[in-house]
Amino acid sequence: MATKMMGYLPNDKPALGQMILLGFQHVLTMFPATVFVAYLTGFHSSTVLFMSGVSTIVALLLSKWRIGKFIPLWYGSSFSYIAAYLAITQATPGTPASDELLGTVQVGILATGLFNILIGFIIRQAGKAALDKVLPPVVTGSVAAVIGFGLGFAALGMASANWGISILTLVVTILFSVYLQNRGFLGMLPVLLGGVVGYIVAAATGLVDLGAIGGADLFVVPHFTFPNFGSAMTATAVFSIAVMALATIPESTAHLYQISLYVDRLAEDMGREKYELDQYIGFNLILDGIDDFLKGLFGSTAGTNYGENNSLMAITRNYSGPALIAAGVISALLGFSGTLAAVVSSMPIAVSGGLAIYLFGVIGMQGIALMIENKVNMFDPRQLAVGAVILVVGIGGNIGYPGGFLPIPILQGIFPSGLPAIATGAVLGILLNAIFLVFPPSKPEK
Asked: Among 361, 276, 200, which Cα is nearest to 10's?
């Protein structure tokens, strides 16, 4: 007797009890990375959780309304923008930045949203091939590598608060990520597990203020902040943050292809009609832009759709849009928990440093992997030139100069602190690539 194929396609609605449990699982999966970005960069974790849930719900409802199908993606905090935020907030992990500085950063996040929406419309008209010419893998991969490796000094700075705790957290997290892989749900939570182990050891050695957790209010209203267009750093925020979308655009596109492949395979196995979500690349980027725009309005970190939740869906064969909406509601409600915010804020800097060494390094390695996957020819002088300029200007400038600002006397009225190194490296790489497109070198005769 044949067994019934178990799974949920995007438009399927599980029973209420199942939907809540599946929603909690999504929240558990996205929680560590989403909150960690807020913790590192001075944003309020309650606001970030609330807006992550709200913007995910909005994106899901818009996709159902516009194309008749849910695009089952979760919108959490992106790591790609951390260096750009820190250049402005100069935040100490666990301590929220001032409303004025957060408002300045928010202007850049709004610009990122508009940039993604614009790119989405361009792709819908011109096709992805045209975009790949302007933003080839050598550009997007190098930018991703710079984002990760350029934060290396910041990670070591956090780790230096207590090297023993940091190294323990780092090693345990790596062991969890390697030896728990493909071993069920726990294998998807190495960062959370590593952080918990580091936190427990730190608490046992007196490095955690448990009194602050006990004294926290059970119920709080998320701390909303609003864009600050009057800051002297506004133009810097727009330039340095919006340019980082160059790293999230290929990431978002890859995630859509991934989820489309798995959804259609499940539909095939169940004998049902395929969804073919991969045809909505442009629309998916528009949804990314709307997500960032909403977060920029109310004081949350810029987002990206999460590969962690994609992996969870592939493992559980649950691609239900309504289950993701349930997760969005749960995440938004968690934003009203004062106790949760206190627990997040109590994490010692040394524990964060151990996690950051691994996470930031992985971001950099993913940039290299993107170039390998797309077979970037490192023997081609054009490719070498583009990658070399992005890497040296971005990494060297971010590590070597205060705040990651290059002291180049250009447009000082707009960029009073100097040019943001990572964004400047990215723009220089794009311009170099454009020159080679307009004036292609002649091919040698055979």
From this structure: 276
